[in-house]
Design goal:
The complex is a heterodimer of chains A (697) and B (308).
Chain A (H helix, E strand, L loop, with lengths): L2 E8 L7 H18 L6 E7 L2 E7 L8 E9 L4 H11 L8 E5 L3 E10 L4 H14 L20 E9 L6 E2 L3 E2 L2 E4 L1 E3 L8 E3 L3 H10 L6 H18 L2 E3 L3 H8 L6 E6 L9 H12 L2 E5 L5 E9 L8 H27 L13 E3 L3 E2 H19 L3 H10 L7 H5 L6 H9 L4 H9 L14 H20 L13 H14 L7 H7 L9 H22 L4 H11 L7 H16 L1 H24 L15 H22 L3 H9 L2 H10 L7 H19 L10
Parallel strand pairs in A: 7-10
Antiparallel strand pairs in A: 1-3, 1-7, 2-3, 4-6, 5-6, 7-8, 9-10, 11-12, 13-15, 14-16, 15-16, 17-18
Chain B lengths: L15 H13 L4 E3 L13 H4 L8 E10 L15 E10 L5 H11 L9 E10 L4 E10 L2 E12 L2 E2 L5 E6 H9 L20 H19 L2 H22 L8 H20 L5 H22 L8
Parallel strand pairs in B: 1-2
Antiparallel strand pairs in B: 2-3, 3-8, 4-5, 5-6, 6-7, 6-8
């Protein structure tokens, strides 16, 4: 069966966008084909820095004839309606329409429109220009005098269609003056001549002959294997870096992997500095000694050229650049070490944190106050915590971090250690950024934990104060991550303290957009939402958490640790047989109460009168509730939720017996009211732990 | 190739001036007018009216020139091997961007001694933006053996106006390229005139003292009160010229107005180096310069050279 070969040949496409673009292109084309009734056997997309290629195999020569039916009005409908139908369906008279009967609606007209199949080449020639013109690039550009928007200038289009063994035909179309054809080009420097291509097989082969590896995965595996071999020969190991590998494979059409070296003296720099300089800025791989695991003074580069001198010039050039980079880094490191962190703080005056939230200096001041307050809550050393908070952002104005922003925190730590700060203080300068992502660990040391919490809570409070909350998928300041960080630091370290007072006080630092109470309520709601998501991953359903949160949110001064402890116990209860039954009893009680309170237009909350009890079951339930209520309250006062729940679950028997044997709506009004008051007592007692009505059945 | 019978003082591999002259000759052969540096201080070659203004409007334009760039905050008293407060850019602007612009650029590298059969030349994604000029474009950093040697940009917008047709802009970092060609580690070591022995003049001979003096001036001495006034004056003068030059039909003084915009931009850079512009003010100063650039661009589009 025939196949399509489409290649869009352009100036260099950003590495990060090639593959997604090729896949998009494939999908856009195949979707439209299917929509037009053209089915295919298989489609593959390829990308290199200079080309997007789509190969669709097993296409028919033409699309199938399509028969569509269009329902019209009833045969006895007004003339006007019938005329309108005929016009819309493209029929000349009612004779061309069919009549169908429907038992309910009677007879009505149906237009049967037969559409003859079209040649696939025509369909493609029709759909390809629009697909190219409207291609959804995240950021596109124009060039020369043209009108087309593309990621970078589009220079040639190859579009052929045909059977194996036959000369294919060119699918002929034009995009902004560029005509489709069957000519592509090889490697920019090693084989720049035009290549005439026929079908995908000879196309891929011709590219390979002309120093282009079309398949991204293959380029990647070539680099991986060559790098490993070069490393092995020197008893070294490549530091794995899948992201870098992807990027590098997107920067070359003919990968040539080579090894270079740098002066050993640079190994005296912190390892991360060397790796960052080489990896992020030069897109080269770093290596470790196979025996010691120490960073080696070698690197691996991937070039796009099989050079005439075997690559000597290229390796030499890269070594030169890396030497310059590392010399810079060493210069920064040595000069940074000469200036105590503390004396840099004034420079933070000139560094904006956020337009509406002031400078980094202002932020540091807030961090010192907030982390000191937190330190008191979690019994961390206030001296250490305030010292760490004060220095936390000082490395932002070091030369090294200015040059390599990704080293923030880490450099602070190195410089703090070098100037003799206490170990936990130095560590906090790095660890207060933790956790950086869901897979990152949280700081365990209390000094770091206090500053880390302050760092995140200051961000959250600040951005809430100026009403810059995340919306939908937009979260430019990573506030969801900050909230999750707060939650994990508290929970994983069991830091049991409340935020309400702390943040109400902290909020006073900002110019508020809105009322303080509402801002805080919204912020706490946001953190609770993150907590709900986090808990769900641990098997605690959202309804359990909302039952707990009902009266006990962060705004009420309940800590995260406390909330989770309640949720865990409640979750245990509702999953037990005992609990299920108790919850069923609660629901029954709550339903009756709701109905009767509505009917009577009042709320039942009075004390029960034991003298009005007519049965043992009533008496027993009342006594149990009195005992349990007191015990639960006492347990909650000491945060002993396990025992509180245990006490509560002892109500199951009396509740079951009550509902089995007692009819609440007694004829005697006084008895009825007393029983309703009893149910209200049950509800209130259970609400001491959580609002059970939030549980879903 | 450059080695063929080129005397040392013109050889890009042996002399800094040889590099400049070779690029000038190359682009002259492509029909560019070879301009001299603009006689005002500016932070980048893009500020030259031959780029900023000429990239606007429908009329074709090809120009190439060297432009000294002043970046007061990059001053290091001549002590950093790669960083200077005054350095050279070689700037090329082709409007509309020709189809073979990448090839032309690579040929220019070949002309200065960078052979694509020996060197790994790469076009690495780069989104270019100038907030002060209200300009942006897409293109690449051009890498030679891992080193960025040029920026290559297709202008999409300048002074807030869509570019139509689109100009292709090439900016060569001359000192950096020269260090590679001459195989020296520090800019100050560059051979400027290509001579040897007593006749040799280095980059340091020409510029070291200037780097030291201007670093002192920029960081320690510049009279900030006066500079603030200069900024205000330039801004006011720009507005005044724009208003006076508009005869309702065409604009008569777009270029003098734009010079005031260049002046305001440089004064802002000096104030920035003196550390007297607070962070919140910084943004507003950039915005003020951009507003001037936009107004000048609008005026330019209404002149003989800028209009249809």
């Amino acid at each position: 069966m025939p196949e399509l070969l489409l290649e869009l040949f352009s100036e260099e496409i950003p590495a990060g966008q090639q593959r997604r673009a090729a896949e998009n292109l494939k999908k856009l084309i195949t979707d439209q084909l299917v929509e037009k009734g053209v089915l295919y056997e298989g489609a593959v997309a390829h990308a290199t820095p200079r080309r997007l290629t789509v190969h669709i195999a097993g296409l028919p020569k033409a699309s199938q004839d399509v028969k569509t039916e269009r329902k019209g009005p009833r045969t006895d409908a007004p003339e006007k309606a019938i005329e309108g139908f005929l016009r819309a369906a493209g029929l000349n008279s009612v004779d061309e329409a069919q009549v169908q009967s429907d038992p309910k609606k009677g007879d009505f007209y149906v237009a049967v429109i037969e559409k003859k199949g079209e040649l696939t080449t025509d369909i493609l020639a029709d759909l390809l220009p629009g697909t190219i013109e409207k291609f959804p690039w995240p950021k596109s550009m124009r060039w020369g005098s043209g009108k087309l928007n593309w990621i970078r200038p589009l220079r040639a289009i190859t579009a052929t269609f045909g059977h194996e063994g036959e000369d294919p035909e060119i699918i002929s179309f034009e995009v902004d003056g560029l005509k489709s054809g069957d000519t592509t080009y090889g490697h920019r420097f090693m084989a720049p001549e035009a290549i005439k291509v026929r079908r995908f097989d000879d196309y891929a082969h011709a590219l390979e002959q002309n120093k282009v590896v079309l398949d991204f995965e293959r380029r990647k595996e070539m680099i991986r294997a060559d790098a490993a071999n070069l490393a092995f020969a020197q008893n070294l190991n490549v530091i794995e870096d899948e992201g870098l590998l992807d990027e590098v494979a997107g920067l070359v059409e003919w990968p040539q992997t080579m090894m270079g070296r740098f002066d050993e003296k640079f190994l005296s720099l912190p390892e991360e500095v060397v790796i960052t300089a080489i990896r992020a800025h030069q897109k080269c791989f770093c290596l470790r000694d196979g025996a010691t695991g120490k960073l080696a003074n070698h690197f691996i580069l991937v070039s796009n050229l099989e050079a005439e001198d075997g690559g000597k010039t290229i390796v030499g050039g890269n070594e030169r650049v890396i030497k310059a980079r590392l010399s810079d880094a060493k210069f920064f490191y040595d000069t940074d070490l000469n200036v105590p962190l503390e004396s840099r703080l004034s420079k933070l005056d000139n560094m904006v944190f956020h337009e509406k939230l002031g400078t980094q200096s202002a932020r540091v001041e807030r961090l010192v106050t907030l982390s000191e307050a937190i330190a008191k809550q979690i019994n961390a050393s206030t001296t250490d915590v305030t010292r760490a908070a004060k220095l936390a952002k000082a490395d932002l104005v070091t030369d090294m971090v200015f040059e390599f922003p990704e080293l923030q925190g880490l450099m602070g730590r190195y410089y703090a250690e070098a100037q003799g700060e206490k170990e936990n203080v130095a560590a906090a300068l790095q660890d207060h950024y933790k956790p950086v992502g869901p897979s990152d660990s949280v700081p365990e040391d209390l000094t770091a934990a206090a500053v880390a919490l302050a760092d995140k809570l200051d961000m959250l409070t600040g951005f809430w104060a100026i009403d810059e909350k995340p919306t939908g998928s937009k979260d430019p300041f990573a506030l969801r991550r900050a909230a999750l960080g707060v939650i994990r630091i508290c929970l994983e370290n069991k830091l049991d303290f409340a935020f309400d007072q702390l943040l109400a006080e902290h909020l006073k630092n900002f110019n508020l957009v809105g009322e303080a109470d509402e801002i805080l309520a919204s912020l706490f709601g946001f953190i609770e939402d993150r907590l709900t998501v986090q808990m769900r991953e641990q098997g605690i359903a959202h309804d359990v958490l909302s039952a707990v949160l009902y009266k006990n949110g962060l705004a009420k001064g309940v800590s995260l640790v406390n909330l989770v402890a309640r949720a865990v116990e409640l979750n245990g209860l509702v999953k037990s047989e005992q609990g299920e039954s108790l919850v069923a009893g609660y629901r029954r009680a709550a339903n009756i109460l709701r109905a009767e309170e509505k009917k009577d237009g009042r709320r039942y909350q009075d004390d029960v009168d034991h003298k009005l009890f007519k049965t043992d079951d009533e008496e027993k339930l009342a006594t149990s509730i009195e005992v349990v209520n007191e015990a639960v309250a006492a347990n909650i006062a000491t945060d002993d939720f396990a025992n509180a729940i245990k006490e509560l679950s002892s109500l199951r028997g009396p509740v079951d017996a009550f509902f089995e044997n007692v009819l609440v709506n007694d004829e005697d009004q006084a008895v009825r009211v007393n029983r309703l008051n009893l149910l209200a007592k049950l509800r209130d007692t259970m609400h001491l732990i959580a609002n059970f009505s939030k549980l879903e059945g | 190739m450059s080695e063929q019978n080129v005397p040392a003082h013109l050889d890009p591999k042996q002399s800094f001036q040889g590099l400049i002259l070779t690029l000038q000759n190359f682009w002259a052969a492509q029909g560019c007018v070879i301009l001299q540096p603009y006689d005002m201080e500016m932070g980048a070659g893009t500020f030259h009216p031959a780029t900023t203004l000429r990239s606007l409007g429908p009329k074709p334009w090809r120009a190439a020139y060297v432009q000294p760039c002043r970046r007061p905050t990059d001053g290091r008293y001549g002590e950093n091997p790669n960083r200077l407060q005054h350095y050279y850019q070689f700037q090329v602007l082709l409007k509309p961007s020709p189809e073979n612009l990448q090839e032309l650029y690579l040929q220019s590298l070949y002309a200065i001694g960078i052979d694509p059969k020996l060197h790994d030349l790469r076009f690495v994604e780069d989104d270019w933006e100038s907030p002060t000029l209200g300009a942006w474009g897409l293109g690449w950093e051009c890498w030679c053996d891992g080193m960025e040697v040029s920026q290559f940009t297709y202008f999409q917008q300048v002074a807030g106006f869509e570019c139509s047709p689109v100009s292709g802009e090439l900016t060569y970092g001359l000192e950096r390229i020269a260090c590679y060609l001459q195989d020296v580690d520090s800019i100050m070591e560059l051979n400027f005139n290509g001579r040897q022995g007593d006749e040799k003049v280095t980059y340091a001979d020409v510029f070291l003292q200037a780097e030291q003096e201007f670093s002192r001036y920029n960081f320690e001495q510049a009279n900030t009160e006066m500079l603030f006034q200069h900024f205000k004056d330039a801004e006011a003068e720009c507005r005044a010229i724009l208003e006076a030059g508009d005869n309702g039909n065409q604009h008569q003084m777009a270029m003098p107005a734009y010079e005031q915009c260049i002046k305001a931009s440089h004064v802002f850079n000096l104030l920035d180096a003196r550390g007297v512009i607070s962070v919140t003010e910084r943004q507003s100063y950039i915005l003020r310069v951009r507003e001037l650039a936009k107004a000048c661009g609008g005026a330019w589009l209404n002149t003989e050279a800028g209009g249809a």
